[in-house]
């Protein structure tokens, strides 16, 4: 689901990668960045460098005393055997669409089961070749990772592996590019703001 | 960096944390106690800086240090410096804790702990500790306003708007300052 044998050309911004590494991205948006990292050696190397920056952030903090019995408690805890923790689902499992909702011939969505703010949406969207999405704006941040196929937004064609980052002031009408269906992973802050009644209807059905 | 024949020159500074982690991997409790005193107050401070309240930060720090004890045999100083390794554990434990609080959905995804493949040969010559030293120096060389935005990227959930508000700058200025700061940092760390 995440593999793409191409070299991505569009990447998350450095600030976004730093937030990912720090663990301060909005919940759900981190999954989209993780999906990108799984296809992009360039960004994985960058993330590794930023982890060393994170270490510097940790190191420069003025120490805050632990409580008096903290060390004794820690020493007692290391003697207790480790409880079995069920393995966390892999990224590929998280991104495997479970229930596809067909919105129109060739168009489906599937919610991604990951923590998020109630007002945000994290979902996969599959769109057949030649189909244009409704013209829309955003209530806030939107991250997109192209999983397969390609889409055109303005003058740019985004292909499998590419990452797209938009904020609230961006309005667009992406179109599927080429002969293949396009599957993308989205995280959006707030609801999308479709223009026109048809868009509103479709977006309401899609719950995006 | 100059290319030299033979073994690259090593900085002699081995951080005490590295030595302690090696001993902890051999189940040395005295070493664990020493590392705890050295690192726990910083981890706690870091978590508080990220917005965790003090009692929660204390508990989470306990979890972080317990994980350090359990995973110490996986620490590889060639791959990551000791503080980088501990930073990643703290980051992951914090996310786990947050996700439990925030949602009934199981947080399914563990961020990759380390980019462990495609390691260029130059990188193999720099130990994790040397890398940490280089990063600290590179940070110090940034102008203060750029250091500030890099820091905020690590500590704020919405760095763009929060920086704009805190520093009373237009959003566009914040974005270009962030780009500039990270580009500079990146130029200086390209060979890491």
From TrEMBL, chain A:
This is ChrR family anti-sigma-E factor. Residues 103-188 form the ChrR-like cupin domain. It comes from Peiella sedimenti. It comes from the Bacteria. InterPro entries: Anti-sigma_ChrR (IPR012807), Anti_sigma_zinc_sf (IPR041916), ChrR-like_cupin_dom (IPR025979), RmlC-like_jellyroll (IPR014710), RmlC_Cupin_sf (IPR011051).
From TrEMBL, chain B:
SUPFAM superfamilies: Sigma2 domain of RNA polymerase sigma factors, Sigma3 and sigma4 domains of RNA polymerase sigma factors. Pfam families: Sigma70_r2 (PF04542), Sigma70_r4_2 (PF08281). InterPro entries: RNA_pol_sigma-70-like (IPR039425), RNA_pol_sigma-70_dom (IPR014284), RNA_pol_sigma70_ECF_CS (IPR000838), RNA_pol_sigma70_r2 (IPR007627), RNA_pol_sigma70_r4_t2 (IPR013249), RNA_pol_sigma_r2 (IPR013325), RNA_pol_sigma_r3/r4-like (IPR013324), WH-like_DNA-bd_sf (IPR036388). Keywords: DNA-binding, Sigma factor, Transcription, Transcription regulation. Residues 134-185 form the RNA polymerase sigma factor 70 region 4 type domain. Residues 35-103 form the RNA polymerase sigma-70 region domain. Belongs to the sigma-70 factor family. ECF subfamily. This is RNA polymerase sigma factor. It comes from Peiella sedimenti. The lineage of its organism: Bacteria, Pseudomonadati, Pseudomonadota, Alphaproteobacteria, Caulobacterales.
């Amino acid at each position: 689901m995440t593999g793409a044998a191409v070299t991505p050309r569009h990447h998350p911004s450095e600030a976004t990668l730093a937030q990912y590494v720090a663990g301060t991205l909005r919940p759900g948006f981190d999954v989209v960045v993780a999906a990108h990292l799984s296809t992009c050696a360039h960004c994985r190397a960058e993330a590794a460098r930023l982890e060393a920056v994170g270490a510097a952030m940790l190191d420069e903090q003025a120490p805050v005393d632990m409580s008096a019995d903290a060390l004794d408690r820690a020493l007692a805890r290391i003697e207790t055997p480790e409880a079995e923790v069920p393995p966390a689902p892999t990224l590929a499992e998280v991104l495997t669409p479970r229930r596809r909702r067909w919105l129109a011939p060739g168009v489906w969505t599937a919610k991604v089961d990951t923590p998020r703010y109630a007002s945000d949406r994290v979902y996969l969207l599959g769109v057949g070749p030649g189909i244009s999405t409704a013209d829309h704006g955003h209530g806030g941040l939107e991250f997109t990772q192209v999983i397969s196929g390609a889409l055109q937004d303005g003058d740019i064609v985004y292909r499998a592996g590419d990452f797209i980052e938009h904020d609230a002031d961006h309005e667009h009408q992406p179109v599927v590019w080429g002969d293949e269906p396009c599957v993308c992973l989205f995280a959006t802050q707030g609801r999308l703001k479709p223009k026109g009644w048809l868009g509103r209807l479709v977006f309401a059905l899609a719950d995006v | 960096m100059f290319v030299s024949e033979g073994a690259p020159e090593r900085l002699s500074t081995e951080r005490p944390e590295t030595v302690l982690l090696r001993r902890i991997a051999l189940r040395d409790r005295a070493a664990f106690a020493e590392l705890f005193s050295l690192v726990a107050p910083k981890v706690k401070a870091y978590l508080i800086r990220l917005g965790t309240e003090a009692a929660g930060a204390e508990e989470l720090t306990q979890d972080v240090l317990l994980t350090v004890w359990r995973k110490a045999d996986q620490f590889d100083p060639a791959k990551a410096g000791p503080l980088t390794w501990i930073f990643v554990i703290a980051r992951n434990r914090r996310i786990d804790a947050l996700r439990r609080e925030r949602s009934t959905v199981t947080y399914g995804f563990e961020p990759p702990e380390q980019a462990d493949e495609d390691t260029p040969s130059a990188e193999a010559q720099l130990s994790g500790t040397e890398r940490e030293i280089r990063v600290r120096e590179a940070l110090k060389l940034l102008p203060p306003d750029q250091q500030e935005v890099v820091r905020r990227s690590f500590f704020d959930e919405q760095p763009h708007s929060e920086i704009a508000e805190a520093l009373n700058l237009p959003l566009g200025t914040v974005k270009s300052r962030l780009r500039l700061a990270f580009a500079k940092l990146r130029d200086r760390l390209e060979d890491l």
